[in-house]
Structures are given as C-alpha cells and as structure tokens.
Write the structure tokens for this entry.
Amino acid sequence: MIKNKEILGGIIFFSLSLYLFYETSNFSSTTERYRSLGPAVFPYVLAICLGLLSIVLFIQGVRSPKAELFSFSMKTKASVQVLSLIAMLFVFLIWVEKIGFIIWSLSFMFLGQIILGERRLVTAMVLSIAVVGIIYLIFGFLLNVPLSSGFLSY
C-alpha cells in the first residue's frame, strides 16, 4: 500500500520519465551523422531531469511520516476553484478551434483570475491581454506556429 502522495507522485513521474525517454529514442537521428545536436537532445535532458527529481520525491516520501493519501471535500473554496478551472480547461480544449485562440484565451485567462479571487477587473483584463499577446507574439510570429483564428478567419 502506498504510504503518502510523495511516493505516489515519485512513481508516476518516474514512469512518465521512462516513457518520455523511450519515445525520444524513436526520434530521427539523421543529424547525428553530421555531428550536430539532434532533435532528441533536449527531450532526453528533460526525461533524465524528470527521472532524477522523481527519485528525490520518492525518497522524500519514504522518509516522511505516513499521511493521508487524498483528502477532497467540495465544502472548501479551493476544491470548487480547482474543479471550476478543470471544467473551463475542458471547455477550452473543445471550443478553441471554433472560437479562436485569441478570444478564447483572453476569456479563459480573465475568468480564471476571477475564479481564483482577483477582484480588480482592470488588473485581470490587462494581465490577460498581456499574457495572451506575448504568447501569440512568440508562437504566432516568432516561431510561426499556426494558432487557431476561429470565426475571425471568415
């Protein structure tokens, strides 16, 4: 039986790091012929770091006293906030293609801040515009990643 959440987290993240390491081994190795860094170098580094940190988490779990694995109550405000954000995330994933990245991300960021307790609406809106603008600038223009424009493309 698993003693506490650190042990469980260590096992889950170590398993994830092994899976990432395995999947990274399937990357193309054509650039390695030319002695340049291939596309697998950074994912390998991340998988190794995740594996090492998950081992540390597991060891911390073994050394800590036995604790309750999960405690969840819908009576706390934090639980309602987390479930609301998870529900918003699923709605976001379903509708982002139809509505578009910019409009939906602005709505998601703004409502997420309101759910988490931000009461200054102007601050929430300015922060939402700034974050979505920076993300769009980095991915849309600098990296040329196509972001959904939704109904704005018509």
In short: The CA atoms of residues 81 and 115 lie 6 Å apart. The mean pLDDT is 82.
